[in-house]
Amino acid sequence: MELLDRYLQAVRKHLPWQRQDDIIAELRANLEAQLEEKEAELGRPLTAVEMEDWIKQLGSPLQMAAHYRPQQYLIGPTLFPIYRNVLKIALIWATIIYCLAQAIALVTKTPHLIDLVRALFAAPGFLLTVAAWATLVFAVLEYLVARQIVNIPALCPPAGAWSPAGLAPLDPAGNSGAKPKSFASAIAEIIFGFFWLVWLLLVPAHPYLLLGPGAYYVSALPYKLAPIWVPVYWCIVACGALQLGWNLIELVRAGWQKTHPLLPLVYRAGGLVPVILLLTTKDHALVLLKNPALDQARLGATLSGINETVNMSVNSVCAVLSILLVGGIVKLILNTRRKRLAASH
Amino acid sequence: MTIAENLFENLRLELRRGCLTLAVLAQLRQERYGYTLRKALADDGLVIDESTLYPLLRRLESQGLLVSEWREEEKRNKRFYRLNADGEQMFTKLLGEWNAINASVLKALDASPSETSNTAL
Q1: A332: exposed, middle or buried (C-beta count within 10 Å: 0-12, 13-18, 19+)?
Q2: Residue range A172-180: mean pLDDT, rounded
Q3: Closest residue of A to B80, CA-based?
Q4: For testing the chain A interface, which of B17, B20, B51 should be mutated: the one with the most A CBs within 10 Å?
Q5: CB-based contact A68 B76, cutoff 8 Å
Q6: Three-class DSSP category at B77
Q7: Domain count of chain B?
Q8: If you average pLDDT over residues A275-279, what whole number do you get?
Q9: What is this structure's pTM?
Q10: Is the residue at B56 inside a domain?
């Protein structure tokens, strides 16, 4: 009997305090009746081992008490789908903002590898904080809505409050993926690609094609571009030529309708090459003086400012291209997994 | 427990949950206290854990389907439950629903004997 008393005492601790006495009195009456009947059947009191087995079979005190509590949710089934969407959007935006903020912070001072490592290790903590706040807001909302303290029809519309007429029209591409490219847009892509390449090849000899009348003023400046811009330029030309060549092959093979899923990733990765070349330039000197012996003392500080600004821009471009590349890879993985799942069903 | 066993256990519990309420309401057309109710259900082949049955009685009472009273019996205070008028009505409705579901399932089983012969056995 002592074990039963101890069990009931443990259950009591986990019960709602207003109903503790009532519930324990009822539980005791039921369990004692059960015990008496067991003992009457055996014709003797239960041994310590038998008693322990019986109590064990009732379930842990926490488990027993939990059944007396109303079903509780941190975020219930009504709010959960909205919570999941909000959390997803919040985390995507938090990642983008964090990456941009860290990229800007890195370029505004002399970049060190340790800063990059610190930024990477701090990222999970930042994202967890965002997720925790989103969860907290929804937990409070759940509490308020469940107790009808607030009524938010937009979050919990009554059943039958929606209208099928408001459904979006059918997506012409269906679920098969992106909309196929038309023949006209494939031709236009090749024509524009060709002119872009011609224009790019003419720019070094005819800079006014890029800068307009400003080209004459720029040529008069005491600054020039660093030699690294030559391979960067040819990288850009090579990317344009490859893209044009690939589009021509696809047109000949009549495969223009569906772009290969890896192609956008290849273009994005290719776009990163010239940017990385610029970032790895020695001393980040992307602009030089035409006549350093004469102008270094006079224009050295201005030149540093120009280089700092150009480097900052290149870093920003690198951050954006990297995000686009990572986003593309994630999208490709998810699409592949979705197709695999669809095929397995 | 394997994934399949776990899934079966979850589905079994889901299936039992509604049936238990109906069985308890059926038994409580006659006044009973917790332990005798548990015994009556077990005698009819429906074994329910104490931690499920006793809180269920509280819930049904708070939902206005049962009435209870403390009374002394065999020198011990016990809480007796029975259906009230609302509980009777609810029981009748639920029983109708259960019969309809049962009939549908049996009809579906009859419609595809080859697929379900093992289950029926």
Answers
A1: middle
A2: 54
A3: A26
A4: B51
A5: no
A6: strand
A7: 1
A8: 86
A9: 0.54
A10: yes
